[in-house]
Amino acid sequence: MGALALAGTAMVMVAPLAFAQADAAREFDMPSQDLGASLRAVAQQSGTQVIAPTELVAGHQAPALKGRFSADQAVSQLLRGSRLRVVMVGTTLVVQRDDDGQEGNESAEGQSEILVTGTRIRGSGPVGVPVISIDRTDIAQSGFSTTQQIVQSIPQNFAGGAQEGASGLITGAGNGNSGRGSGVNLRGLGQNSTLLLINGDRPPLGGFSGTFGDLSVIPASIIERIEVVPDGSSAIYGSDAVAGVVNVVTRDGFRGAETSFRVGTADGDTQEYQVSQLLGTRWSTGHAVIAYEFYRRDNLSADDRPYITDDLRPFGGGDYRGNYASPGTIVAGGVNFAIPRGQFGNGLTAAQLTRGVINRGDGWDGVDILPQQERHSLFVSVSQNLTDNLRFYARGLATWRKFDVAVRTGVDSRRTVPVTNPYYLDPIGTRQPIGVNYSFARDLGNERNRGAVAAYGGTAGLELAVGSWRIDAHGTWGRQDERYDYLNRVNSARLALALADTNPATAYNLLGDGPSTNPATIESIRGYNKRRWDALVWSATIRADGPLFALPAGDVRLAIGGEYREDRYEDRESISYTSSLAPRTNALTPLPGARVVQGIYAELLVPVFGEAASVPFFRRLDLSAAVRSEEYNDFGRTTNPKVSFAWDPIAGLTFRGSYGKSFRAPGFTELRQDPDSIGYFAYPVVDPQSASGMSNIMVIRGNDPNLGPERATTWTLGADLKPASLPGLRAGVTWFNVNYRDRIGSVATGLASFLINRDIYAPILTFNPSAARLAELFASPYYLDLTGIPSTAPIVAIADAQVRNLSIVRQSGLDFDFQYDFALAGGDAQVGATATYIFGIKQQLTATSAPIDVVDTVGNPIDLRIRGRATWNKGGFGVALFANYADGYRNRTVTPAQRISAWTTFDLNLSYAFPRKSGPLHGLRIALNASNIFDTDPPFVSYVAGTLAVGFDGENASPLGRFVALQVTKSW
After folding, report:
1. What's the structural domain count of the chain?
2. What is the pLDDT of residues 292-339, one digit of tens each?
3. Which domain covers residue 76, as residue numbers?
4. Closest by Cα among 971, 928, 906 to 264
């Protein structure tokens, strides 16, 4: 079923302690018992993390253990006769099969030592860098069913950005996420600042033009573990790793068969179904795995959550309902007349209208806050030894996902009813056409997004062992196709014809309560938009790592490599049927051609001191340095270094730190230079320094042709404690700091205040422009006459509102991890917590702007998040309780600012695994999971943005409520 994270945590802060940490001997006295129980006992008593896939240890009986042993010696004794072995990876003991060095956690790299995320050097772990590791046991205990739920549960993740449940919310289907995928946003630095990897390689990005790594296409059942490095890692992996890296390692070494079924419900409001099947086999020279997973979740309607509404008065907020409803409102002579309910527009008189009143509508009626999702995934992995030192390996993953979601209407507009319409009513007696504010949701149904995502790709390579060195050469190819249909839209051209129709049987009637029109006429105005795009990536990699020479403290190790990668994003189809009498094919977005990236890197690990040196307060000292240089065909070269250290002054205590530079390459839409992306226009704005109070400026829009990468400098300092005097205790703290500069953006949204806040916008304003320059802009084919300002009018400044390298973000804070393993009531217990506390997130619009601290505000990360846990296992029974805490914060979208309450929820997982003697029930595990067991609603937030309002913060809370699931897993 998974891997036993013995003495591990749901999210472990792993730091490279002394390689000989497990050498500290201690007394053991354990009876012969189940191997898993014995391994847990060793882990708890020694304070050393032990990882063993449960499919390996299941059914094995460990011998009695009595005497003085180091942790690795103790585990070796317990594995006698089991055809299993133990290897040391950094400070972690990993149990593997002895008949083939390709099993369990190490199998992702197909070698006997694990390659941990954050380093290219096998078997060491990244020096000085925290790694959050989530293995099969952690996944099972969490009760989560999807990869995005697993990753997004860690406190370091911020839910802003690409989320499947952002239907109509302020986090909306923007961010290029019309395909309803799910990204990860470490530190809240942006969905495109966290790098997603699968087995160390980049998949194609999701969203239009590749805006985020899409977790939704990775089935949870194939995951061996997830490793998260919340630290800048461009020196190792290149672009997009500013906030960190998420690496999904697959179950390549699985052997046997595993069948799993899960059904869940959010108190009946939405249901979830999941079925998976894994098959794995091995032979003397290789192994193979094939896995399939089906997942379906029904939609969750806003109608089932009373706080998701535009009318927030019942919760202490305002009424933000819109002017469009059914029945609607007549607008004549600038006066509103509410149409009465309970009538169909036949024989309606002016006396029945309510003068000066607007019928208001709630834009959330019938809208889904979670889409219906259906996914099929197929995974294949194979490894074959060609000779004693040469291995071929390949793996592939294909996912087909469909979604369907009711959304808020995209465009409401006043409709004109001519006097020829048989239902026309003139409330003021002018016999002029009237306007009607009318919602078509009851006529056409809610507008919907419906579409599909197909993601597939694979890796194939050769691995050669040359002495202690490993050389790996492989190629990776991936493609992600996305399409969506925007349905139930009003075709304005067809509606105009239907409103002008003089036949009462076929004319459109906007004056009734609800659908009052012939169904065939309603169907005739049903419009849509269709979009399709795809992403393609392929890469070739060659890398090698191994020891250079030996020092007293250990081997100096080197990793070197080179990579070639091509990324391509193409707009494939754009069809609209909303403003024309026939479907119209629109011009495609002219994205740039293929991006070609060539990179080389090197990483060096130097063990300076070890225990044998007997240097006071230098029990161990490891240093690491890495550098990566990449050449991009579309914007040039970038080189990023990183250095780090891990220092053990005494046994059980480690200090660590890292310093590095990272970057994010400009996205494809940000590099466009086509005519459709460029525009100049003169515009009047408020000017306090003008006698008239207004001045004209010339605005330049488009993309800066000299756009460069976003850059960041990151550093961490941390400490880890594992006292020998208190076995089972481990604690860690990391102080992180990110200085993120040259962030790509535009100041266009602040257009009206350019001259009001001259001090803020001075870097993008050129005052007193020359007459020649202004004449050039007015004469340009890109000039847009939006306001009718003549070329002879005075222009006080040129405003560069292009997409360009602008803003700065500085963030710092602390990550905490605590865990204590101990015996309780004859079983194994663990308590622990992981947390993130952010000191501040200071943003500057431009380099000279005053910084604004946005932490603890709506739309941004909150300062404190904690996920606590308590687990207990005895025999086959297990219980895991999690507490999730989100601190209070401020809502500045309303006046006066609103204080948001803290939010605490609890998750519970009860499970029972039948023992070996259970006969046909052996290998069966039954688990009952409950998230948010007390069904605690999110804290009320009067979240207002323009014409949209909602009663909770979708970036800092979930509207799902209590969710209960039953999962049955059988290992064969």
Report:
1. 2
2. 999 999 999 999 999 999 999 999 999 999 999 999 999 999 999 999
3. 1-100
4. 928
